[in-house]
Amino acid sequence: MSLLPSRFIYLSADFRFYIENHTRNPDDLSRKQVRIYQLYSRTTGRHVQILGKKINANGDDGGKYALLVVETETFGSHIRIKGKESEHYICMNEKGKIVGRPDGRKQECVFVEEFLENNYTALVSAKYKGWYLGFNRKGRPKKGSRTTQRQQEVHFMKRQPKGVVDPLEEFRFTTVTKRTRRARRLKPNSKRN
Q1: End-to-end distance of the chain based on CA atoms, in angstroms?
Q2: What values do phi and psi take at 46, rounded to 5?
Q3: Would you indicate the residue range of the signal peptide (predicted)?
Q4: Pick from 22, 104, 108, 131: most CB atoms within 10 A?
């Protein structure tokens, strides 16, 4: 004997549909995550920096233009990258050119993070599928139409700004032996790391 009338039809929830709708049209009520880090370029060995309208990968570690504010939407890995000092967003125009814009609300300024097997991150344009953010060996931006995921020019590594220590790296394991235990008892007033 069924407790529910037969006219109720239960459909399985399609979570992918829900995510697509919320990432396509994010609202102001959704929770946004904001992080500050640097993007280390694999080809130049330097960091991505936003100098207003111009963007390159020749930034110094800890440089004020290399500090990036990364805004993440609630669902998926759609991000907007803004320079902390210049207040400009990294965007890709219809020709595939990388430019800096003061307003980052357009779809041209949204990138999708792709985590690669070699522990690097690639950033593909959300509007122009298959076009990646990339820089040549001199640090100049590459056109999105001339990039693929396999190229080293599009591989980046997220790094903390210089002087900021990751809490997991700060904690160090030390082995305690009879010798170190005895040394600690003899020096009770010394500073411990």
Answers
A1: 69
A2: -130, -175
A3: none
A4: 131
Domains assigned to the chain: 21-165 (2.80.10.50)
Measured CA to CA in angstroms, residue 78 lies from 39, 53, 70, 87, 155 at distances of 16, 22, 10, 19, 17
Q: Which residues contact 157 (CB under 8 A, 6 or more apart)?
A: 39, 40, 42, 119, 120, 121
Residue 84 CA to residue 69 CA, distance in Å, equals: 6
Closest CA to 125 of 161, 98, 157: 98
Q: Mind listing the pLDDT tens digit of every residue in the chain (193 residues)?
A: 555 555 544 455 555 555 555 555 555 555 678 899 999 999 999 999 999 999 999 999 989 999 999 998 656 689 999 999 999 999 999 999 999 999 988 999 999 999 999 999 999 999 999 999 999 999 999 999 999 999 999 999 999 987 766 555 555 555 656 666 666 666 655 555 5
User: Strands, E, within 16-167: which ranges?
Assistant: 33-41, 47-51, 54-59, 68-72, 78-83, 89-92, 98-101, 111-115, 121-125, 156-159
* CA gap 35, 158 in Å, rounded: 11
